[in-house]
Design a protein that fits this description.
alpha/beta, Serine Threonine Protein Phosphatase 5, Tetratricopeptide repeat, 12 strands, two-stranded antiparallel ribbon, Spore Coat Polysaccharide Biosynthesis Protein SpsA, Chain A
Amino acid sequence: MPTLGLSMIVKNEAEMIGPCLDSVRGVANQIVVADTGSTDRTVEIARGLGATVISYAWNDHFADARNAALTAMNTDWVLSLDADEELDRDAGSTIRRLIRAPQAAGYILPVRNYTPASEIRAGSAIGQANDLRHPRASNAGSYFTYEKCRLFRRDPKIHFTGRVHEQVELTIREAGMKLRPADCCIHNFGLLSPRGDMGKKLIYYRDLLRLRVQDEPRDFRGWTYLGRMEYDSFNNRVEALRNFQKALELNPRCVEALLFTAMIYLDLGRAQDALPFLEFNPPDHASALQKHRLLGDAFSQVGRLQESRAAYLEALKMRGRDGELESKLGLIEVKLGLTDSGIRRLEGASISLPARADIQDRLMKAYVLANMLPRAAAVAEVLATQAPSPKTFLRAASIYTQFQNWRESVRLLRRGMELFPDSAELKRALADSVAIDGASA
């Protein structure tokens, strides 16, 4: 039977490392932990659980640290985990089968990244509802999945590359070896237990990514990672777009860069510029879903409503139940005159996701288009309560005035004035509504 070793790098992971090492009990023949400067009980705990611990002087380079851990391995195969991860309870038998009769030098495992949010989107990955597969994730609202080679043959040709977002995939491919998917997963709990100053951590990782693209300016992956961080973590669309464009210069078929570029143009209201970046053949289900979702948004922005509806329908077919998609599709159908179908979709989305202001806003707009003004006013009032501002109160009051319900308009504007007594717009609107309501009485 081939042997398997666990290889890790850690720093101050005393609260996390125990469950991680317990998850490979009976699976790993060797555990090697490279400690990069812990000041807590991480080293003591790891040694107590049977790990060989080596010290590594941190040099702002994740691949270097992981390769240092690999040098102490003596097993046939290597499993790579982080301290805030655990191997799935059923993964052991699958891994033993894979390494007993290997069809590849490395296996790509899905990593479930749990988050407290009930809905999450990370780049082109769309969150899944928590299925409670792991008890430690019982408080998670959802998870998103990314795939990475975490199981690979111990071979001098195979090593990690990349200052950050390090991986072994490149060296496996460069050596002419094969990568295959594996049907077992890893659970990542890092987002469920934030530690330290997350803002400083994000800035540090961005700095490392900037160093990475300096180290490897011809590697499109580094530019893609940097673009994602600028977009997801810093909301810097201009800089993110520049990085994705650089990635596409190096690899015009980089799906992630294509999707993100389209997303940014849509954010900027430039749907016509987004469409050319959605003319690719998706290589997998996730990118196909995201492509059709973005196509629906782009066609909607440019007024090509039938094409928008077709794109949203395709995305729903791939996704299954999805309140956001149902909401977007419902508004398009109302605009196309398919009022009954559209309203049903919008009302269903509103019930399933009552706290989503964007979904309530689409329902309100659809009611206005369908001349269902009392319902529109009721939804607009809910929105004014959820996200109070002079604008939301004025909008709700204006819908009441459209069907001449001046009394309700006055009531709502007075509520707005209590919250925003200095708003000149609310004062004028209230004075006009009071005068008209008094005259009509």
